[in-house]
Amino acid sequence: MSISRRVAQALLLVGVFLGVWVFWWEPRRLLVKEVPILLDDWPASLSGLRIAVLTDLHVGSPFNGMARLEEIVRRTNERRPDLICLLGDYMKGRIAGRLVLPEEWAPALGRLHAPLGVYAVLGNHDHWFDAPRVAKALQAAGIRVLEDKAVSLSFGGEEFWLGGISDYREARHDVRGTLRQVTDDAPILLMTHNPDLFPQTPPRVSLLLAGHTHGGQVLLPFLGALIVPSNYGSRYLAGHIIEHGAHLYVATGTGMSYLPVRFRVPPTIPILTIESPAHPGVAGLRERFFEAH
Q1: How many domains does one find in the chain?
Q2: What distance in Å separates the CA atoms of residue 145 and residue 45, rounded to the nearest whole number?
Q3: Helix (H, G, I), strand (E, B) or coil at 182
Q4: Which of 173, 215, 224, 258 could form a disulfide with 252 if both were Cys (CB 3.0 to 4.6 A apart)?
Q5: Three-state DSSP class for 160?
Q6: CATH value at residue 44
Q7: Nearest-angstrom CA–CA distance, 285 and 276
Q8: Radius of gyration for the chain, computed over Cα atoms and rounded to the nearest angstrom
Q9: Longest Cα pair distance anywhere in the chain, in angstroms?
Q10: Which pLDDT does position 82 carry in this prediction?
Q11: Domain presence at residue 15
Q12: Which backbone phi and psi does 132 adopt, to 5 degrees?
């Protein structure tokens, strides 16, 4: 066999392997990721707060039908978070998959449970479909929708605020109006869909939670993410980002929009543990991963 033929066969095998990885294996995976988040201004009395972050479910996109959603709900509940934040884009993208109506998927999300409750904001795909209808379905399932609203919550006898900011591109995203609803100096967590809101978030906010980017959905070695739906490129691509003392966490989501592919950005449910530097156990925190088979 000639060298050129062997090279051609090797390239064919690599192509088949990558195709299976990108179009089948990785989109079908589901990781649960325990993530420690250390916040300098977070009080020790609130240390250990655990938040499950679900975003970009895109129900109806390839590999993300109702069975997959039920699995996501089950896996999230198994981790027993104190609080669950839903960051939008429940509806599928405009190309691949099939349309699943809010009245179909919302009851499944209604089976999420956490002591401090389940709260939601809407994403751009939800606005493109019908934002009032999506919000109504979530509320009917017992999920509180925080579109430019803030609520006071209590963990371990200590108060903090949770605010929801509407989508950066498709709604008012009224940060100032939301923060005016905060009536004391308790810590503030904000949730929104698009991380491009981060530069508008004042230092008064301890942490902003966002999704939208899918982590680029395809992350190439050396080149990084080729397509990121953000005005800031890969600056707010994924994970825990700190700028000028302000904190952002961008979750990469579980669904897909437009192209039904994932490469080195597996569908992930992050469970954040918010910690204070004053908490004695903070030095031992490590990320842990759990995969559903």
Answers
A1: 1
A2: 27
A3: coil
A4: 215
A5: strand
A6: 3.60.21.10
A7: 12
A8: 20
A9: 77
A10: 98
A11: no
A12: -60, -40
Phi/psi at 91 (nearest 5 deg)? Answer: -80, 155
**Which segments of the chain are extended strands (E)?**
31-38, 49-54, 83-86, 118-120, 144-145, 149-155, 158-164, 188-191, 207-210, 219-220, 224-225, 239-243, 246-250, 268-275, 288-291
pLDDT for res 236: 97
Q: Identify whether 1 is part of a domain.
A: no
Angle subtended at Cα 231 by Cα 227 and Cα 233, rounded to the nearest 5 degrees? 45
Q: How many angstroms separate the CA atoms of 239 and 215, rounded?
A: 9
From CA 274, how far away is CA 270, in angstroms rounded?
12
Q: Which two tokens mark 18?
A: 């990558």
The one-letter amino acid code at 178 reads T
The token duo for 260 is 């039904």
Cβ contact 73:112 at 8 Å? yes
Considering the domain boundaries, does residue 235 fall inside one? yes
Residue-averaged pLDDT of the chain: 88
Torsion over CA: 65, 68, 73, 74 (sign): positive
Q: Tally helices (H) and strands (E) across the chain.
A: 6, 15
Pair 75, 230: CB distance under 8 Å: no
61 part of a folded domain:
yes
Residue 83 belongs to domain spanning:
29-291
DSSP string for 39-105:
-TT--GGGTTEEEEEE----BTSTT-SHHHHHHHHHHHHHT--SEEEE-S--B--SSSS----HHHH
For residue 289, the model assigns a pLDDT of 56
